[in-house]
Specification:
By secondary structure, the chain is α+β, with helices and mostly antiparallel strands. It has 2 domains: about 90 residues, Immunoglobulin-like; about 160 residues. Helix content is about 45%, strand content about 15%. It is built from 7 helices and 8 strands. Helix 1 packs across helix 2. It is a multi-pass membrane protein. InterPro entries: LC_transporter, PQ-loop_rpt. Belongs to the cystinosin family. This is Cystinosin.
Length: about 290
Amino acid sequence: MLPSNIAGFSLTNDSYVASDIVFSPLSIGMAMGEVKRFSIKFREPLPIRSKFTFTYRNSAGVSINATEKLPIKPLDPFTVEGGSNKTHRTSIFTKKPGKVELGLASVDLNITRVTGLSFDFIVFNVIGFACYSAFNIGLYFVPRIKAQYFARHPLGVIPVEINDLFFSLHGLFIMLVVIVQCLIFERGSQRVSKICITLSCLMLLFILTSTLLAAADAISWLTALYLYSYVKLFVTLIKYFPQLILNCRRRSCVGWSLCNFILDFIGGVLSIAQMLINAYNYGELSRSYLD
């Protein structure tokens, strides 16, 4: 019977360097149908709960994805709890002649972490959604502001629909929930940056000044809402830069939801399309930049 050599264990794991994990033994020679055991030892306790799966490569270093091409029976994944460095032991069973290199890939199973999500992005988003919500609530519910709008745009239509109102309030609510998560979940060394604090204070001062001027009848409440919309526009222009910088520094997008970005982009495009269509229908494209 031809021997089947299982040789050259190699670590292909993005989360841990090779020196953190030890394969014992490093190589195994086996005969057909033979079963042998090996262990995976962690030098230090893992910082997070992780699931490890085995990867397979041939002698040329090419990944083997089809299990029927493996000379061994596929190995089951295993989970290691955060704070543990318990040795994992498993068995290898050969099913046909050949060579294969084993590697490890890990998946973070700790869902109670917010590391990787920029706190600056969250702060900017809260301010933006708050301004957007105030704009929508004012134009959708407040008769005085509606009257001011129609006085300025006699043939116009209120540029706020129920979906706009829901979108802004839903976004604000979700951001507030995320803030609570940031307060109670593991966040590592992440903090709100001084630049974000400075810009946020300036925006809040601008909002407060606009509100006080409207309350003193120095400007109309409609004008105040337009000023809020400028803050929202500014936030939209800058809010993703902190997340982009954080991803570049970490050289990773782990912790940041790409789906959130895609949905935000699609929602924004559709919102602008709706606004432009409504403005075109009523011959008032000049007002569309205010939403």
